[in-house]
Amino acid sequence: ITVMTFGPISIHPDFKRKGFGKILLDCSMEKARNLGGKCLLICGNIGFYGKSGFAPAAEFGIRYADAPESGAPYFLCKELEKGFLNGITGSYKDPEGYFAAQKNPDAFEEYEKQFPQKEKLRLPGQIF
Q: Could you tell me the residue range of the domain that residue 47 belongs to?
């Protein structure tokens, strides 16, 4: 089935807890609805996304890629159309575009040159 994904939502520490993350999330969900989205699947913090109706995807019978059957607590789901996932189970795999930098680093660097120069950081907890 076709589902939508987005993210991550990121707010500069100086602007956290001022409602900007909620504004971005609400805008993202509205855009998804306007594009015909029926379900959103994302990786994120349930403490933030749960306030907007997201729940662990395992509760809907959806598993993250190669995660164990018990699920990945950070893999979240929100039905934009109530009941869309009734009777559906399966696993989700990230879109290929998420891994562009890994698959073709030279092409990715060339693409990045289109944008203003920025500092690249490697932060704790960063996967790649």
A: 13-93
